[in-house]
Design goal:
Layout: E1 2-4, H1 18-22, E2 28-30, H2 35-45, H3 52-55, E3 69-73, E4 75-76, H4 87-91, E5 95-96, H5 99-111, E6 116-120, E7 135-138, E8 141-144, H6 147-161, E9 164-167, H7 180-184, E10 191-193, H8 201-207, H9 216-226, E11 231-238, H10 245-258, E12 262-267, H11 285-308, E13 314-325, E14 328-334, E15 346-349, E16 359-367, E17 372-379
Parallel strand pairs: 1-2, 3-6, 6-9, 10-11, 11-12, 15-17
Antiparallel strand pairs: 4-5, 7-8, 13-14, 13-16, 14-15, 16-17
This protein binds iron/sulfur cluster.
């Protein structure tokens, strides 16, 4: 017998599940709205007949990333209507996955050997808004479908597997401040991918950006006070229609002051169907490209300064493979500061065999514009 429903979420006098305490012979107990969990228990006690079509698919599904990291999609679509973007017209409004389902997938991925989960969506901070932060069940515990609870649950799960959790596409809404303590405590990686896109309030208004407050510098300073090792990544658009030279200079001043760790910049490019195409005073293509180049040039110096502070320190590194350079092969890995494919790497000399997906401790001996260099100190202890 499997028991499901509201009573299944209650705790008994002994601190365990009420129904399990009273009826120890019950096979499984779940809270309400836990259809997938019930089916899981049914299959555990009554295995499905062999089906060659689906039985060959691993528990974690089929993923296109290497075995040691995986993307975890928590929602689809977006409630915003940024003028340069056509995602909402293609994918519709925000639809969040219930938190129980997301955590189950995360568990299956960790079970399959994943050492780093990258949380993705169109707007991670808005997770659960469409569900009104509805309560779902994780291991029989009631948990709200909301960004902070998601970060807590993923951090708890990752600790069991000695793995990393990294958040992407976080808009700087006020409630985001609540995840910083989790980062400072090492429960999720101290890494925030915040797509600011611009800094001038008039450009942000024309872009129709969400959370485009003018207090972003203060927010960044407050985040760094809570979590001094925080890495902030962001992307920007140079040459958005109507962007004046002084608005662009304002953006450069923001970058000088904010000293972001990782920055990507695109020259504005009109996408078919985007409302921004109808805006007056488009910036000529060569000027857009020139502004992109100026921004990246400025950021290269900032990035170099930011990376220098790690020299002499020891960092936990996830091994990615070997880099065959002119002077022979060196090991390559990523730190908490480096999301795969978009950020930098650490090149380091090591000892013995270094399996991809292992954690090692690396003493940082040098840095350049985007990458670090070091030597392996030891196999890493548990995070
Ligand atoms: S760019 Fe704007 S509209 Fe497009 S997905 Fe991001 S927040 Fe939504």
């Amino acid at each position: 017998m499997i028991v499901t429903g509201c009573l299944g979420a209650r705790t008994g006098a002994g601190g365990a599940n009420l129904v399990s305490e009273l009826h120890p012979s019950v096979l499984a107990v779940t809270g309400p709205h836990a259809a997938a969990e019930v089916v899981q228990h049914v299959h555990a006690h009554l295995p499905r007949p062999h089906d060659p079509f689906v039985d060959l698919v691993p528990e974690a599904g089929i993923k296109l990333t290497p075995r040691h990291y995986a993307y975890l999609k928590i929602s689809e679509g977006c409630n915003h209507r940024c003028a340069f973007c056509i995602i909402p017209s293609m994918r519709g409004d925000l639809v969040s996955r219930p938190i129980g389902e997301v955590i189950r997938e995360a568990g299956a991925l960790f079970d399959a050997g994943v050492r780093e989960l990258l949380v993705i969506s169109q707007d991670t901070s808005a997770y659960g808004v469409d569900l009104r932060y509805r309560t779902d069940f994780v291991d029989g515990r009631p948990v709200r479908t909301r960004m902070i609870e998601l970060a807590e649950e993923l951090g708890r799960l990752a600790a069991r597997y000695d793995a990393w959790v990294r958040l992407h596409y976080v808009y700087p809404y006020p409630h985001v401040d609540a995840v910083l303590p989790l980062m400072a405590e090492g429960r999720i990686l101290p890494y925030l991918d915040v797509p600011f896109q611009h800094a001038h309030p008039d450009v942000l208004k024309r872009m129709r950006r969400p959370a485009s407050g003018e207090r972003n510098i203060e927010r960044i300073e407050a985040w760094r006070r809570i979590c001094p090792d925080l890495t902030i990544r962001s992307t920007f658009i140079a040459g958005f229609p109507g962007e004046t030279e002084s608005e662009f200079e304002h953006l450069l001043d923001f970058l000088r002051e904010a000293e972001l760790d990782r920055v990507g910049c695109f020259a504005y490019s009109p996408v078919e169907g985007a409302t921004a195409n109808a805006l007056p005073n488009p910036v000529p293509a060569d000027e857009r490209e020139d502004r992109r180049r100026r921004l990246m040039q400025l950021q290269a110096g900032i990035s170099q300064r930011r990376l220098r502070r790690w020299v002499g320190r020891s960092m936990r590194v996830l091994v990615e493979g070997l880099d065959e350079g002119e002077d022979g092969a060196v090991a390559v890995g990523r730190t908490a500061m480096d999301a795969p494919e978009i950020d930098g790497v650490v090149r380091f000399t090591g000892r013995g065999r270094l399996p991809i997906g292992d954690f090692v401790d690396v003493r940082i001996t040098g840095s350049d514009e985007h990458d670090l260099h070091g030597e392996m100190a030891a196999r890493a202890r548990a995070a």
